Structure formats: C-alpha cells, structure tokens
C-alpha cells in the first residue's frame, strides 16, 4: 500500500494543525461544553487508557474531567496563541479494526502539535497574561473515515495525548 507523498503529508498536517488550534482554543475561550469532543473516546482505544491529559502537572483521568474543570473552576479563560508548529510522528497510523482513510490522502498520520502563547484566567480586562506551552498528539478519527456512512460534523483529528503547562 502506497502512502502519501511528501507534499501531501506537509499540506495535510499543516491544515489539520491550523484547524485544530483555531477550533480548540475557541472552545477553551467560549465553548467549554464542547471540550470533550476534541478527544479520543476511551472506548476507542485498546485498554481504554487514553486520552492521556496532563494539565499543569496534574494527570486528569479523562476529557470529561478537563471539561468539568473548565466549567466549574475556570469559568473565564482567554487563550491567545502566539505560535504553533507541527510534525508528523507516524505517517501510517491505523487502529486495528477501525475505518481508515485511503492511504494516499495522508489522513492516517499522527501529528505532534506544539503551541505557545498567553492565557488570562478570570476577567480578560483585569487578569494578568501568563505564558503557556502545550503539546498535543493528534490521531485520525476513525469515525470520520467511515466512508458513505460517515456522520457529518465529526472532527477528522482527535487528541490522544496532551500536556499543558503555565510557564510564567
């Protein structure tokens, strides 16, 4: 099975990262009730041990715990992304027994996304900006690759692993 060419790999990973960064941080800023939709469902992975989420040194058990934290403990947050970068980790990632995209599309890869910027917790006009650094490992969403039966509005990429840290 022939995989994607180099140009396709770069284009797909760059577009996926840009879309992910734009939509994920919009959710953190204003749409806390959608946070879990960005993550691999635990049932989708062997052993159900993923996603792995570390938030400022605290290991969270699942995406629901992160969403609850934002809804109850961080009701106001304003993230301003200064820069991000992406790298393909595995150009041919397919979870056994799931749907995959056609190999030439380049959408079966895992992507490391590194993000940095500033965050304000509380009233954005009064809160002091704090620098943050965050890394994600994005994996293809097998439900989005299901061909004609594919549900609409599914994210093509989901968070498998995340590490967030306030750095200042």
Describe it:
The protein is of the alpha+beta class and 168 residues long. The chain contains 2 helices and 6 strands, in the order H-E-E-H-E-E-E-E. The protein has a 6-stranded mixed sheet with strand order 2-1-6-5-4-3, with helices on one face. The N and C termini lie far apart (47 Å). The model has no long low-confidence stretch (mean pLDDT 87).
Short description:
By secondary structure, the protein is an alpha+beta fold.
Which descriptors apply to this entry?
single chain, 168 residues, alpha+beta, 6-stranded mixed beta sheet, 2 helices, globular
- Stretches with pLDDT under 50, minimum 5 residues: none
Write down how many β-strands occur, each being a DSSP E stretch of 2 or more residues.
Answer: 6
Strand content: 25-35%
Instruction: Give the spatial strand order of the biggest sheet.
Output: 2-1-6-5-4-3
Alpha-carbon distance between the two ends: 47 Å
What percentage of residues falls in helices of 4 or more residues? 10-25%
Structural class by helix and strand composition = alpha+beta
Number of helices: 2
Instruction: Tell me the major beta sheet.
Output: 6 strands, mixed
Shape call:
globular
Nearest-integer average pLDDT: 87
Q: How much is the radius of gyration in Å? A: 16 Å
> Secondary-structure element order, as H and E?
HEEHEEEE
């Amino acid at each position: 099975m022939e995989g994607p060419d180099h140009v396709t790999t770069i284009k797909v990973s760059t577009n996926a990262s840009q879309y992910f960064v734009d939509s994920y941080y919009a959710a953190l800023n204003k749409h806390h009730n959608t946070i879990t939709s960005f993550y691999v469902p635990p049932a989708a992975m062997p052993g159900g041990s993923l996603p792995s989420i570390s938030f400022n040194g605290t290991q969270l058990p699942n995406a629901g715990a992160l969403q609850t934290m934002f809804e109850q403990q961080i009701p106001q947050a304003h993230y301003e992304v200064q820069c991000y970068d992406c790298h393909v980790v595995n150009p041919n990632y397919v979870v056994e027994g799931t749907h995959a995209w056609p190999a030439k599309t380049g959408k079966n890869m895992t992507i490391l996304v590194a993000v940095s910027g500033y965050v304000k917790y509380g009233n954005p006009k009064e809160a002091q900006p704090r620098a943050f650094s965050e890394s994600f490992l994005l994996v293809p969403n097998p439900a989005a690759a299901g061909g004609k039966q594919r549900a609409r509005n599914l994210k093509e990429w989901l968070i498998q692993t995340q590490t967030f840290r306030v750095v200042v």
